[in-house]
Design a protein that fits this description.
Elements: H1 4-9, H2 11-14, H3 20-29, E1 31-35, H4 41-51, E2 55-59, H5 84-95, E3 100-104, H6 113-117, E4 122-125, H7 130-143, E5 146-153, E6 156-162, H8 175-178, H9 191-194, H10 200-217, E7 226-231, E8 236-241, H11 263-267, E9 278-279, H12 281-289, E10 294-298, H13 302-307, E11 313-314, E12 332-336, H14 341-354, E13 359-362, H15 365-373
Helix pairs in contact: 4-5, 4-10
């Protein structure tokens, strides 16, 4: 099964008495689907590829943004603006040419989840929103697949293994046994809203990779029926016991899950933020050269504005809804930030709260402008 190069590559695994060649064979034969290649997916994919998981699938429809690079170690500045799955495939093949990488440049939905997941042995959920977490869980339950779960926020992370069937055939709890229903919309912010310490997904994503390897090889005891939590500020960790709440836990039934549903409706929030209207940098510069009448709003912080600005009106994102009266409704309004992420969020907030219809995001933000003008912008 292994070439001379592979035996040399995996030597440090093979010489472990409790692991050995048989466990490495199981890794090579395995198929693992990673949903999300961001903060958690990046370290997880790096270690799964390096470990020799033979067939890795990646589901993600996002593109690399400069705000990702603080924690998504799979990518570099050369990939900004590129598809994450394509960039991830190239990086992983460079790390390990002996494995196969399948990419799905699409959003995981109720319509495609069962078709994508069915061909894999284990699913690793690296997503950051509740609709997709419930979707991944329910699809794994319906297909009898193990779901290795993790989540992160600010300084805290958690890991568990759901829907795992042990050597005796007993099925462990799934995500709904821990969280039967999602929290009210807006109660729990995601990382884009609340932030995350950059090193935290590296820690938690590596633990998630560890659990995937344990599930595949049968080495060690997976976190089935347990929730591991980690606090990066205090370095405290705790492990909580999770029990199955299904009516008949001994026969493996999951009576509460019969089919996939509309998870955005179930959670009361979209899995993906809606797109906003955009103008390209070229269109923006043409509007300036033609001296067209428009308003330019800069939603970065004051120190960013002082470093380099486009002579727009400075209204930091945290103040945007309090100063909405300063934004014109009678002309085209272009809103920008460093890369386009914060300005898109500002537009959604203004549209939702004040029904603005004349707002446009400057695609690529000040970063695109600085690259065109060959100006260095501090990170």
């Amino acid at each position: 099964m292994f070439s001379k190069e592979e035996l040399s590559r995996y030597n440090r695994h093979i010489i472990i008495p409790e692991f050995g060649l048989e466990a490495q064979k199981k890794l090579k034969k395995s198929k693992v689907l990673v949903v999300g290649s961001g903060g958690l997916g990046s370290p997880m994919l790096l270690y799964l590829a390096a470990a020799g998981v033979g067939n890795i699938g990646i589901v993600d429809f996002d593109v690399v943004d400069d705000s990702n690079l603080q924690r998504q170690v799979l990518f570099g500045i050369d990939q900004i603006g590129n598809s994450k799955v394509i960039a991830a495939k190239k990086r992983l093949e460079h790390i390990n040419p002996h494995i196969k990488i399948n990419i799905y440049n699409t959003q995981l939905t109720s319509q495609n989840a069962l078709e994508i997941i069915k061909d894999y042995d284990v699913v690793a959920d690296g997503t950051d929103n509740f609709p997709t977490r419930y979707l991944v869980n329910d699809a794994c339950v319906l297909l009898d697949k193990t779901n290795v779960y993790a989540s992160i926020f600010q300084f805290e992370g958690q890991v568990s293994v759901f829907n795992f069937r042990n050597k005796n055939g007993l099925l462990g709890p799934n995500y709904r046994d821990l969280y039967p229903t999602p929290p009210p919309p807006g109660l729990v912010p995601n990382c884009a809203e609340g932030g995350v310490l950059g090193v935290l997904p590296g820690i938690i994503g590596s633990l998630q990779a560890l659990e995937v390897i344990k599930v595949i090889t049968g080495v060690g005891e997976p976190l089935s029926g347990k929730l591991y939590t980690f606090d990066a500020l205090t370095f405290h960790s705790r492990t909580f016991i999770i029990t199955r709440k299904s009516n008949n836990p001994l026969n493996g039934d999951n009576p509460t899950i019969h089919k996939l549903m509309d998870y955005e409706q179930f959670c009361g929030i979209p899995a993906v933020e809606r797109k906003v209207k955009e103008v390209t940098l070229e269109e923006f510069l043409q509007m300036k050269s033609q001296e067209l009448d428009f308003q330019l709003i800069d939603v970065r912080e004051i120190h960013e504005f002082e470093e380099l600005n486009l002579n727009g009106l400075l209204i930091p994102l945290s103040e945007i809804t309090h100063k909405a009266h300063l934004i014109s409704r009678n002309k085209k309004v272009i809103i920008h930030c460093r890369s386009g992420a914060r300005s898109a969020k500002a537009i959604r907030e203004l549209e939702d709260k004040f029904q603005f219809e004349n707002l446009f995001n400057l695609k690529g933000g000040i970063l695109a402008y600085s690259q065109m003008e060959k100006i260095t912008v501090k990170a």
